[in-house]
Amino acid sequence: MSQLGEALARARTSARYSQDDVGAALGINRAMVSYWESGTRTPNDRQLSALARLYGTEPLVLLEGRDTQSAADDLAGMLLRAEDEIDPGVVPGVRDFVQFLDRFAELATTLGEPIRGLTQSPFVFRPRFSQKDDIRRKAEEVRAHLGLGIGPIPDLDPICETFGITVYRAPLGSDLSRAPSGAFLKHPDVGFSILVNLDMTPGRRRFTVAHELAHALFHSDETNQVLSHGRGPRENFADAFAGEFLMPSEGIRRFAEEVGLPPRIADPVDIVHMQRYFKVSWPMALVRLRQLNAIAADRYAELRKSVRPVSLARALGYSIHPEEIAQDAERWRVQRFPMSFRRMLRQAVVTEVMSPPTAASFAGLALPDIVQILGRPLGGEEQESPHLEAEFNEFEVTGVV
Questions:
Q1: Within its chain, how far is the Cα of 64 from the centroid?
Q2: CA 284 to chain CA mean position, Å
Q3: Mean pLDDT, consecutive 10-residue segments, the chain of 401 residues?
Q4: How far apart are CA 286 and CA 284, in angstroms?
Q5: Secondary structure class of 375 (helix, strand, coil)
Q6: Burial of 341: CB neighbours in 10 Å, binned 0-12, 13-18, 19+
Q7: Nearest Cα to Cα of residue 193 among 75, 278, 40
Q8: Side-chain half-sphere exposure of 198, counting CA atoms within 13 A
């Protein structure tokens, strides 16, 4: 076996890929991967670069036969190495993300409950098919797969959980010229995982979940990690997918037609109704409508500066989420964890696999946070809503039950 072949075999084993996995990722036969590792054949420059990217290392490291074990194990380092021009303050959030995934895997092992994480996308993607119409078609395919039609998506986290994609949130910095909006990582034990920058506005965070979903579903055959920062073909694709996924072109046109709006929308009241229907932020609604040429450029500039969308929405009778007024980092102490992890942590406490203090320490939470996850106080009685019994009676007296 050649020096390069040995390095390739070690790097693949360290990254926990089979030869079949590598062949599928590079679009080649598994036998070719075996030839490279045995030294029978040698990958060309393009193939070597693809292998290095897949294993989270550099072509020179493989050519020199150096050990890639430490680089492959340091998943946070792999993510950070993907982008050179980021703020050093990003590092703690990225490492927190990877450490959480490791804890999630450990918790699942402790409970004997497997994580049904997605490890291979159910969708076909070819880089040559990345035009506007192709991206729209991809968004339609994902929506059809989930049975979403062309209407609004109430919450993206359950969508990701349906796929087996873990979503975690951590602060990465509010200046997106120096900080990533999020990241995608294929964790060896958890599978496809998404990181969302908690320092962004609520509307931008929602957009980022859809953006990273695009990386997971359509770029995971090319790479195990993406740090979403800067521009490039992948980022452009993911941005276009997120817009189309959250506010489908056909859905916008059907909504406008059914409620009697003109093809060109100018009234902010109409835009607020559409924004609330699709459950997106005011900026995203404006940007999306401008992308589709449903708002003229001069009207877009005027609406961006002159409208107070929260006040207008309240006047129209819509409920206002507290984070539309002011962001509250405390509410994300628990909610930054995916639902599946919270369920497992609750199970660990309820079944006495972990004590509440141990669970709090394990997850990096305070004891009151564990109480919140349990959904009940650790001692004493908690006052429940007086309307519950009345509602049961209303169902029963009318014959619903």
A1: 36
A2: 18
A3: 84 73 80 91 86 75 70 62 69 87 94 93 90 94 94 93 95 90 94 95 93 96 90 93 96 92 90 94 92 91 92 93 78 88 93 90 86 68 70 85 73
A4: 5
A5: coil
A6: buried
A7: 75
A8: 20
**What is the per-residue burial (b if ≥16 Cβ within 10 Å, else e) of 296-326?**
eeebeeebeeebebeebbeeeeeeeeeebee
Tokens in use for 323?
Answer: 């984070």
Tell me if residue 183 falls in helix, strand or coil.
strand
Q: Can you give the length of the chain in residues?
A: 401
> Residues 188, 168: contact at Cβ < 8 Å?
no
Tokens describing residue 370: 């564990």
- Distances 125 to 6, 237, 356 between C-alpha atoms, Å: 31, 11, 45
For residue 302, the SS3 value is: helix
Q: Tokens for 20?
A: 């079949």
CB atoms within 10 A of CB 255: 20
Nearest to 347 by CA among 189, 111, 116, 105: 111
